[in-house]
Design a protein that fits this description.
Layout lengths: L5 H11 L23 E5 L2 E4 L4 E5 L2 H4 L8 H12 L9 H13 L5 E5 L2 H16 L3 E5 L6 H4 L1 H4 L25 E3 L5 H7 L4 E6 L9 H13 L3 E5 L13 H4 L5 E4 L10 E5 L1 H4 L15 H17 L1 H22 L4 E4 L6 E4 L4 H14 L2 E3 L11 H23 L21
Parallel strand pairs: 3-13, 5-6, 5-7, 7-8, 8-9
Antiparallel strand pairs: 1-2, 2-3, 4-10, 9-10, 11-12
Amino acid sequence: MNKINLQKLLSNAKKIIPGGNQLISKRSEMFLPGLWPNFYKKAKGCSIWDLNNNHYYDFCGMGVTSCVLGYSDNEINQQIVKAIKNGSMSTLNSYEEYELAKKLINIHPWSSMVKFTRSGGEACSVAIRIARAYSGKDKIAICGYHGWHDWYLSLNLKNKNNLDKQLLPGLKTIGVPKSLSKTTVPFSFNDKKSFDKIINKKIGVIIMEPMRDKLPDLDFLRHVRSTAKKINAVLIFDEITSGFHDNYGGIHLKFGINPDIVIFGKALGNGHPISAIVGKKNIMNRSQDTFISSTMWTERVGFVAGIATLNKMKKINVQIKNINKGNYLRMKLYKVAKKYNINISICGLESIPILKFLHKDSDRLMTYYTQEMLKVGYLAGSQIVMSSSHTQSIINQYIKAADEVFKSISKYISSNKKVPLKGAVKHNTFKRLTT
């Protein structure tokens, strides 16, 4: 059987799909330009098979942090297949929507109402609409990455570099109405001065990630919480990435600091499309005074996946297990780096270690790391997401492979030579991709 040319297939896809796919974080240019496998045939556990049946262990995101229970979990699949057979859409409502809402409120006792969407970006925009309706004020203060919608990208209208420090540099504002230029302002994480500088009574919404790469200063979070209350602004915690990874629920529960609204996605459905906006009744009820509605938000499979995912997470205590795996991997990688005199940092959630090479050619070194790990059957990058499918044996195999690559990197660094790449250095900014 002839092998499929995966690079040519990607090139052809770019001719009919702008950029080649729907998610920047999955573009091959973000990992290994010209060499990344690009398309998968099957995913199970923490294994992925490309279209040529090459097998890889996924140490590079697990579906962009969404599959903490592993790919194609049997228990979740059974519930979804049952739901599809009974009809995933009808004129009437899915009872599972009510059941999932109750579960989320029980997990977050400070809340009392829930709305659902399918994607994280939608959930952020719905939360912003509700918060503006409640506060009666247009202006938003942001800290973190919150999606692609106009209200977020408008921050770069006034200064094209405003969003560079939030997550992804180089985000452009083409297509975003210029009239929105003064509606959104940024502040820096763990920086009271930065926050206080932009905060005033005109701010109606404060949206932030309570944690991404590093732990929050709890005094900072408390200050944001108290300030929001003082100026009558709605505080939104965007937990689309952090939610249900290091604990069962929003990570804000670990810190004991509650928002007015919290947003979940990704891990909530173990990769199936379901996102949630969970909040206080007096605020959430304002959604009935503004038009927020979508046919596909009522589709049954997302609710069923959410319920099945939460049930299994709780049953197997997946968060504690994944934290232990993440900390073990972190410790081992530091040990390997020290062995070969390579400077690295590892930050992020305990269950999502983020590896960085502390070197002037850090992007080139990470590209080389991805390139060499791919050769021996690992999808490897900066972000390493632990799942219930990453066994001790698989993790140890990964560490053994990483040891060999670190050894090779050390030789090039010590001889003052650049590591050899078969393609270009990976992107770490937003770039328009041509066909």
